[in-house]
Known about the structure:
The chain has 505 residues and is mostly beta strands.
Amino acid sequence: MTDTTTHTAAPAExxxxxxxxxxxxxxxxxxxxxxxxxxxxxxxxxxxxPFDNVWGNMSWGHATSKDLLHWNEHPxxxxxxxxxxxxxxxxxxxxxxxxxFGSPENPALVAIYTSAFKEGSGYEGTQAQSLAFSTDAGMTxxxxxxxxxxxxxxxxxxxxxxxxxxxxxxxxxxxxAVEAQHQQVVLYRSADLKDWEYLSTFGPANATGGEWECxxxxxxxxxxxxxxxKWVLVVNINPGAVAGGSGGQYFVGHFDGVQFTxxxxxxxxxxxxxxxxxxxxxxGRDYYAAVSFSNVPxxxxxxxxxxxxxxxxxxxxxxxxxxxxxxxxxxxxxxxxGLPRLVQRPVLPAxxxxxxxxxxxxxxxxxxxxxxxxxxxxxxxxxxxILPGSAGTTTLSLLGAADGNAATLVSFDAVTQQLTLxxxxxxxxxxxxxxxxxxxAPVTLEDGVLRLRVIIDHGSVEVFAQGGKxxxxxxxxxxxxxxxxxxxxxxxxxxxxKLTVSAVS
Length: 505
Ligand code: FRU
């Protein structure tokens, strides 16, 4: 579950914070929890150590935002106490006042979280599900006196995601949670969030080389068609993800109010251990514990992940804060090669700000083109439509040193049809032996075109390829002042149909 090595506070090696990615002011965070939209605000609760910048004292921190880009930190919402650490979970708006915690006019927000019980608590060694509620729109919280509400006597039963099911089987609350060490998602139902009835179990399936954590289950129309709805089951796994360590896989299938059944095309055959055949939310190293918001209007489905990896999370060279969230991603199901698959688009400001560079219809043959340095305070967004043509490799080189000795590379190989994010020479990689890495994902050109949206926010590079069909996210720690950006083409000629660099501030 976690890298529990104790580290003292890191020196101020890298103090540059991301601008659009949420960080806690001066403490540690991990998983996003209780993502909910309510009365015009997006609430981001999260695993937080209120007293330090390493994992421990797990409590729910809290931040809110109107636009998913600019966040305000609030006091700790649900603290750990002598009995329990407060592990991951979700929040629902109890519109029907099924719990009696609120009233029909003022529904309570109800958090369903994992109590990781401590020694002497009476439930020592157990992880069970508990409730807390708020009747002031999420600003203050009270733990329910009848906790825990669902206890299987298991030491690894956690991360409840609850949603309101309405369908052929009726109308009730459904919880998906994990038996982490059995690689199983367990489903329960309830009328009042307090009494839970077992429904079914899914798994093990596909990637099973680590603990299953933080599941999510939701319906999405395929290609926007309300008459063709599929269910998506998200299962985070640590370790054992495609790029190593932590990551998120998903399954597409059907949920009948009792059981989730994966479509056969989203399951790898028994005995197939090639992780590249599973479905991944992200092929990079740093997108974990991703779950979606509840109560978002217009059935929009928006996810946030923890932009980190348990392989080295406690060692990131930042101070006093440590760890950030990914950008929010709006997700849809689209038909890709005949099959329903997730497409993810980052939430960015409607107006990206000044375009500081545009290149159009330019042929580049075995050479390098310098792109402008971004202003160090801003976030860079690079949008590119490139025809790799006969070129062997087409590479965007980011956050580079003036002498060319360091950079983060986003590179397309026309022979293998792989897109690689390479941070081996990105800057400080020495703080952990597992940090230096290069990850690649299969990308199919569309009419010969490679379409990229790359977001560079100081210490991270998120790459959305082919309109969000493939995503790669990596943290990087470049030396301050390393801002050189280049496009290089090797082994032939590529045509840049259009490339823009925007500076979001
Ligand atoms: C995932 C996780 C969860 C757990 C939480 C503890 O990163 O291990 O399974 O609830 O973090 O902080």
